[in-house]
Fold these 4 entries.
Entry 1:
Amino acid sequence: MLSTKLPVIGFSAYSGTGKTTLIKQVIPLLKSRGLKIAVIKHAHHHFDLDQPGKDSYELRKAGAAHTIICTTTRMAAISEFANPDEEPSLQQIVDTLDTGKFDILLVEGYKHLAFDKIELHRTAMKKPYLYPEDPNIIALACDASSPDALAIPMLDLNSPQQIAEFIFDRVYLKYSG
């Protein structure tokens, strides 16, 4: 399990299920309840926030191992890894958060790690359920009827409101109350 002062809930599913789409809908619902939300998203591909010709890009390309870009409205930190084949662990990423600034952490991806998750399942994708093999899945958000003998709560994948209520009641309040 992750070690953090924040309540954590993950969204676990196969690629193309709609994790980011759902999280984008859940965030404003949790925010409307007064929560400050941090999100960690796992990417399976390389990305670059910088643009060639920008100062931050040039500083990083010159050899800076860590670059922070800051304005009056936001800040971004970019770290270069010495060995690009050794991705930092989720715990290492969580440890970089200033947990005092947030009320809850939402995690997209990292489906094989041990922390509480909601499985998202779309019947049309014809993929197997993850929950039978993952004891850390605490709810199933599905677009079809409940599988037989489901021992965890069933949520409507197409109801961000229901999923946000579950997260608030069963994750945030349980952890912080």
Entry 2:
Amino acid sequence: MSSACLGAPGALLAIISGPSGVGKDTIIEVLRERHPDPARHFVVTCTTRERRDREVAGESYHFVGLDGFAALRDHGALLEASEVHGNWYGTPRQQVVDALASGKDAILKIDVQGARAIRAQVRDALLIFIVPPSLDELYERLAARRTEDGMALERRRRDAERELARQDDYDHVVVNETGKVQHTAQRIHQILGHEHGQRRERRVAI
């Protein structure tokens, strides 16, 4: 893919990723509430899965049908698209381009497949991997959600094992200890600040 669009100097494309159930949504919520920053844009991604309780269309995700998702993907409107647990997820390209061009950090909460896809296209993407204290604890969190049956839970556990084995692919790894989500959000806030100092003149190419 050609690098047709350049972000403003120092603007970050930051990927927050990790296995299902690790707490990504809650971490993002706390990061936004405890560390508000007008120079950050939290990208709203697209998905074909059903909306869960407490999720808000257009804020949690853009919920689209399979045909609508396919049209976005086929027209190049998605920076990446991945199928996870039978559902499709994708990152709207224009949101990312607009944020970076305006000098804002584009922050993505996406799955591990999506993170790998973006790193393959965007060399300067910053990858942050969230991990649980243990695999058993992650399984307990997934079971507590009560959104999957036993077979689906076991599939997510196997997926998590494979995903955790790839954490060396990331720039930073952060453990989300149970009951310490504010500490996790603080750590990510610190990482973003540190990376700004390291990448002050760098421009992300999309």
Entry 3:
Amino acid sequence: MKKGEKMRVIILAAGKGERLYPMTKNTPKSLLELGGGTTVLESQLENIEKVGIKDVTIVTGYKTEQIEAKVKDISSLDITICYNPFFATSNNLISAWMAIRETSENFVLVNGDDVFKPHVLEGLLQSNHDITMVIDRKENYDPDDMKVVTDGELVLKVSKEIPLEEANGESIGMMQFKRKGRLIISETLERMVRQEEGKKIFYLAALQRIMDKGYPVHTYECSPDDWAEIDFHSDLSFIREHINKYASEIVNA
């Protein structure tokens, strides 16, 4: 991010987190505690502030009143709540569309269940490409991973449906859109929400359409130890059990 460049972070936090029931029965996933009294959302906001970004949009849905109450007294950031009333019947493409259509500056899009070290976001901001996806690489991928196929620094495919043997990376759920890239994703999402399938798919399906048309999506690579996604009970248990050597590094880095 160049000095004086306007940048916003959009956090997609509307989902119900049903795979984490019963913990999310009365609490949104983003307000689950990592340890030491720090929630997922608080960790994200702290790290956003550490890299010098002040403008944040949080897309809410499930238990929005709890998230709104959590952030209402935060004065160090300019936080906008974007409520998605369709959270119970749609996937995150709708949430992304709702926030992006109201955004006039360059932005970073991050999943609401991502926990990351601040240098991941800081490194992404150094990319000067129009569209940049943060990925990691590991020896083996799981069926539920948002897998990618890359060629050098370019992403060719992104989908959970990519065969395990074909994948050579994983999207961590953080992307940056600048200049023309911001306009292209906005226009693509606008077209997709007008189609019936748009209600049920991930926003990364829009990235695949963009890449299929020949527009480049570049990568910024981080280590698997630099982030965590809280999707299942085992994810949260792992972080809590390794709070001293893992989660505390992310939360307090």
Entry 4:
Amino acid sequence: MKTLPEIRWDADGLAPVVIADAATGAVLTLAYANREALESTLATGSTWLWSRSRNELWNKGATSGNTQRVVSVSVDCDADALLYRVVPNGPACHTGAASCFATTLPLEDAAEAPDAAAFATAIGALARTIDSRKRHPIEGSYTAKLFAGGVDRIGKKIGEEATEVVIAAKNADRGELVWETADLLYHALVLLAERGVSLDEVGAELSRRAKPTD
């Protein structure tokens, strides 16, 4: 194994680990790792952590099946915290929620803003459900029927949904526009899954486009 960078472990030999969805950027969990957990994560590409309550090393999902594939590990500027970017296979929280940060506290006089994290979490969860339907078809499932029809059937639906989005916009019907846009995004995700294109790839392209141009 390559030499680890110098990590500023705390008095108990631990460092906090922020675990985020690699596709959406949504924060899933705040946990802790020691040197052994970090080395195991780097060696296996699976999330390893240190349980402070059980005082033992543990592999995320080993019991529940809700594993995480680690795509990158970063160290913060002070070298005392870690960031795991992961592809989750199921919910991150023991409660069954996609994220351990499912409870939002109200802010006094806070300006109303779009909840980008919630949107990213929803897109990621939907993409995982679609992928599951592709790998494990359920009889009668609409998604499974789309996959059975291949690119032609999925593409036809995308064309129909795109037209309905335009009609909703021209009708100035906000609710209809939201509904039809959700349909369009869903079918686009099905097409990506059919062709084996990941959200990571799409996200990378969006990030490239978001960079200021010279």
